[in-house]
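Working notes for the structural subgroup meeting. M.R. asked for a predicted model of this chain before we commit to crystallization trials. I am recording the input and output together here so anyone reviewing the notebook later can reproduce the run.

Input as submitted:
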Amino acid sequence: MWLSPARLTAGIVAGLIEVAAFAALAVLALSPAAQRQPTGPVASRSGVLARLQAGVPGAGAAAAAVSVAALVLLGVAVAGAGGPGASAAGELGTAQIGGTTVLADAKGFTLYSFAPDTPSRSNCNGTCAGYWPPVTETPAAGPGVTGKLTTIKRSDGTTQAVYNGHPLYTYIGDSTPGQAHGNNLNLNGGLWHEVTVSG
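Returned structure, recorded in token form:
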């Protein structure tokens, strides 16, 4: 299922809020009541209610452990959300999308170019590169890849693959090979286009 960057970010924020709220409520609910001296009929309570009011031994540690587990699961879900993530160039290939032959990475995910880029510089860094992971390392041309393959150095020092003068990216909105949800999007300061084999 494809999620827009805005929905993905909102989901992550909501997950963090839920985990924080659970942790706070669990600690409050399971910690011993403040030192109170009940009077009257309340003073005679015993059994389960009295034990709950006194606090459950190890409840704080249990709440903390469950909160940490929830954060770990949220982290795993965020890491696995969306599409291909950063990938080594490997052997680039082609894919047919809507009757157009486009460039694909070694896993079959559609590759994109960013209009503000130049043949020697990527202008997609930081948060932008989180949504549009650059294709790293030196590419090799697979069957049907007829354009010129080169590389550039990114601002973080990594090597990025370039095809016919276009630095290459995947898109987290593509969850499986053969999708091109990033084509013609105007995000992160410019237009994104699938890279055609002839382009």
